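ingest -> validate -> predict -> emit
validate: passed (alphabet ok, no gaps, 71 aa)
predict: started
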Amino acid sequence: PRPVRWGGEGVSADGKASLKVGETLSLNASVTPDSVADKTVQWTSSDEQVATVDEHGVVKGVKAGTGTAAP
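emit:
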């Protein structure tokens, strides 16, 4: 595994954010060290009934609840 740092506008220092149903949040990731050849990041959601995340790191609130989106 390679280290990945991620965040986005609206994400707090502890990595948390709140979304209302229908709202979106764009996450970004950086893979380190710079010498890593494959910097592909695959985003996942812990509960797609609460929040989805697409291949570009865009999280969308689906319904009330708690979930995790991470690379």
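Strands lie at 4-7, 24-26, 28-31, 44-45, 51-53, 58-61, 69-70.
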